[in-house]
Amino acid sequence: MTGDALSPEMLVALLRDCRTIAVVGLSSNPARPSYQVAAYMQQQGKVMIPVNPHETMVLGEVAYPSLSAVLGQIDLVNIFRRSEEAGSIVDDAIRVKAKALWLQEGVIDEAAAARARQAGLQVVMDRCWLKEHVRSLW
Q: What is the DSSP string of the chain?
């Protein structure tokens, strides 16, 4: 089921409608994929919230140590962490009442994705947000 839980139409709606995106594992290193994807999100007019306890500021935005420290509503949680770390992040996303969850390419945790779906979150797994957004523009 990795990455295929949403129809193409639902995926496009998710990319379009989620405005506030918490990027867990965002690095301030411009060579890292998390930085490149988050920079693209900002260019697309998204409010990007860095979540990384080892950062203080990324792409001009204050970084938070955890999802629970973020103030305000989060539309989508985008995970740039190893698969074995995804489960606890998914549980945090459920607790903060995020609307959707995006596990980047290579991040796969079927049990965590099932918990998120059970809690009512839309879930995309093992896909790149940037690649999917560019594809949706075609």
A: -TT-SS-HHHHHHHHHH--EEEEET--S-TTSHHHHHHHHHHHTT-EEEEE-TT-SEETTEE-BSSGGG--S--SEEEE-S-HHHHHHHHHHHHHTT-SEEEEPTT---HHHHHHHHHTT-EEEES--HHHHHHHHT-
Residue with token string 């139409």:
9
Q: Give the strand order in the sheet containing 100-103.
A: 47-51, 20-24, 76-79, 100-103, 122-125
Q: List, in order of start, the domains of the chain with CATH numbers.
A: 8-136 (3.40.50.720)
**Contact assessment for residue 51 and residue 64, using Cβ atoms and an 8 Å cutoff:** yes
Per-residue pLDDT tens digits for 1-50: 454 568 889 999 999 999 999 999 999 999 999 999 999 999 999 999 99
Report the pLDDT value the prediction gives residue 1, as an integer from 0 to 100: 44
Please say whether the beta carbons of 101 and 90 come within 8 A: yes
Q: In angstroms, rounded to a whole number, what is the distance separating the alpha carbons of residues 99 and 39?
A: 22
The pTM score is 0.94
